[in-house]
């Protein structure tokens, strides 16, 4: 039984945290950079630890590390040595671990909550390109090249002590297949794959998510199938498509529902913690067992989810 199964055998819901990058930005960080939130690993790591801590206080069961866009290649382009780049990737796990230790020292964990987990975020190859390719896919890479791209970062995060690896915002089935084959090299590791989707039926490259779920259902080492960085309105349909083809636990952590305007570099629309919690309740009713937030979600959103899920916000 993998770690995710063990937790879900005892607890009805595993609550993820919310956004890291946009939360850092909300607190004053400048993340207009190809490294995105990974830039803060260099400039202000204490700010990352602070965000992790606040999500634990809000009720999150997991800290998603600030490693989504942290790659050796990206750090080297920024002027880091290869070893500095590797250490920064390890540091993303260490910061989450420190936040967990501080939270457990400051708070008594209620029986309704599992022991907090460290989930290492691993973005797709498209995130490294920093050109929006994680919402398109089709970046002309072979499966073998994608395996090679993800290998060392996965090894570093596991070596640093991550409990789970989360390959997220994956836009293509080919990249998902590459990840499955890569993880066969780490047979004791628990991981999930989460897709970015552009409709209630398809992942971003256009492949039906049901086809992806059917392939992943046979992967014994895979702990869950996810949907993230996707408009909330698409989530109920996507959950139903995954459930029709797989018995794996389903993770959903969409964005806040606001729309990003790349021309003005601003967000449009409105979102509230109460609305996000109401949607989360619907996602649980549809079959999701792992729920959190992606871009523009906040500790307030996660606290609202915790309140309805177990009657507490801390």
Automatic annotation (TrEMBL):
The positions annotated for binding Zn(2+) are: 229, 294-295
UniProt cofactor(s)? Zn(2+)
User: Organism's domain of life?
Assistant: Bacteria
Cite the cofactor comment: Binds 1 zinc ion per subunit.
Q: Name one GO molecular function term.
A: S-adenosylmethionine-homocysteine S-methyltransferase activity
Which key words are in the record?
A: Metal-binding, Methyltransferase, Transferase, Zinc
Biological process (GO) annotations held by this record are: methionine biosynthetic process; methylation; S-methylmethionine cycle
The segment(s) forming the Hcy-binding domain are: 2-309
Q: Which InterPro entries match?
A: BHMT-like, HCY_dom, HCY_dom_sf, Hcy_S-methyltransferase
Kindly give the PROSITE patterns that the UniProt entry links to this protein: HCY
Q: What is the recorded name of this protein?
A: S-methylmethionine:homocysteine methyltransferase
Q: What is the lineage of its organism?
A: Bacteria, Bacillati, Bacillota, Clostridia, Eubacteriales
């Amino acid at each position: 039984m993998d770690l995710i199964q063990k937790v879900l055998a005892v607890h009805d819901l595993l609550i993820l945290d919310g956004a890291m990058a946009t939360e850092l930005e909300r607190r004053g960080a400048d993340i207009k950079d190809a490294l995105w939130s990974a830039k803060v690993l260099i400039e202000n790591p204490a700010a990352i630890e602070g965000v992790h801590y606040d999500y634990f206080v809000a009720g999150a069961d997991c800290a998603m590390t600030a490693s989504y866009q942290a790659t050796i290649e990206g750090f080297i382009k920024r002027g880091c040595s290869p070893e500095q780049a590797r250490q920064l990737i390890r540091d993303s796990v260490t910061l989450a671990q420190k936040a967990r230790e501080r939270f457990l020292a400051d708070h008594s964990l209620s029986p309704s909550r599992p022991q907090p987990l460290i989930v290492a975020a691993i973005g797709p190859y498209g995130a490294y390109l920093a050109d929006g390719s994680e919402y398109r896919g089709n970046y002309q890479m072979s499966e073998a090249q994608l395996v090679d791209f993800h290998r060392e970062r996965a090894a570093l995060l596991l070596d640093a002590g991550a409990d789970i690896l989360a390959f997220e915002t994956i836009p293509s089935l080919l990249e998902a297949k590459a990840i499955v084959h890569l993880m066969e090299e780490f047979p004791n590791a628990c991981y999930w794959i989460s897709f970015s989707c552009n409709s209630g039926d398809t992942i971003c490259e256009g492949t039906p998510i049901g086809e992806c779920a059917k392939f992943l259902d046979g992967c014994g080492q895979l702990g869950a199938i996810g949907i993230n960085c996707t408009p909330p309105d698409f989530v109920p349909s996507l959950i139903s498509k995954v459930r029709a083809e797989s018995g794996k636990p389903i993770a959903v952590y969409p964005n806040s529902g606001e729309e990003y305007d790349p021309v003005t570099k601003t967000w449009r629309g409105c979102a509230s913690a109460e609305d996000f919690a109401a949607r989360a309740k619907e996602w649980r009713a549809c079959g999701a067992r792992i729920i959190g937030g992606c871009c523009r979600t906040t500790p307030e959103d996660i606290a609202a989810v915790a309140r309805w899920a177990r009657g507490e916000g801390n």
